[in-house]
Amino acid sequence: MPRITLGLVAHDDKKADMAAFAATHAAILGALALVATGTTGARIMERCPGLQVTRLKSGPLGGDQQLGAMIAEGRLDALIFFIDPLSPHPHDVDVKALTRLAVVYDIPMALNRATAERLIRSLAG
Ligand SMILES: O=C(CO)COP(=O)(O)O
User: Could you give the domains of the chain?
Assistant: First the structure.
């Protein structure tokens, strides 16, 4: 059976939280194909050297749009995106486009840790 592909993204103030989340669930994540925006992916691999993460461009430079394209092409099965709702983002339109496509294509999407904790359990083999 093909591996599930999971997208991982975190805004700057949520990156430590994402790294901790990845460390907690490294065993589950290790069985998935992981794709992340540039800086998020770097932080995850720094914290969890055993995890293989395909890194796209950084979010503000097109990484969110790359993930959106993967969704549109049927190449992303689920998305965990720790958004920071308390900070402005220059690429807010890209963030909106990504989350919109996740809804359009009805892929499971967690935008905060509480939901991600539930979603990740559903992805465990
Ligand atoms: O900006 C982001 C999501 O909108 C995340 O991008 P980075 O992981 O490159 O910081």
Answer: 5-122 (3.40.50.1380)
